[in-house]
Structures are given as C-alpha cells and as structure tokens.
Amino acid sequence: MSSSDKWVFYRDRKKQWRWNRTAVNGEIVGAATQGYVRRIDCLRNAYRNGFEGGDDSGTRDKWEIYRDRKREYRWHRYATNGNIVGAATEGYINRIDCVANMKRHGFPGEKKARMKS
Asked: In this predicted structure, what is the pLDDT of residue 56?
C-alpha cells in the first residue's frame, strides 16, 4: 500500500525544506513536522518515515497516541533527543485507523506506543 505513495520535497515560504507523502487516493498521509535548512536533513527525516523503504530508527523512537479537541485519534513520534520527528496529518475516529497510519510511517507495534490522556 505505501509503496505507491507519492513523495514531494519542496521549499516553504521561509526557504526551508519539507516533504509531503500522498496516497494514491490523493490524501496527504504524512508530512514533515518542521522545516529543514539542509535538504539532506529533510531527506533523512523522510527516510525515517518510510521514504525509499526507510530504516530501523523507528525502533528507538517513542510513539504517542492521543486524542485531539475533536476527540479524534492522532499520533506523535519522538526521536531519542525528545524532538518530534513525525505526526499525524489528520485525526482518526477509530484508533485502529490511527495505528494503521502509524505503521505506514514505521511504527514497530502496539507495545511501543503510549496513550496520552
């Protein structure tokens, strides 16, 4: 499913590098959570989130599922230094749909996620 996703790398208004990941149905299913001065840093973040097969950095990252103001499920992904390196681009009514999106971004499994109140 994710192998057919389209990845777009671009510069924002501040001339920083970002990426978007779009599913075949046109929905954005991932995006950079911050801008990067260097394109290589943006590519590394995309790689961490599944670009070109990704890597295993997700096994060291911490994952958090939470509910937003609309009571929809969302997620954050934290690097070992505490920085957010991934986040849901939309809310999900069902937790299982949120987890499916997390897996698309390298989530290693339920035991690695904590639920935030």
From this structure: 55
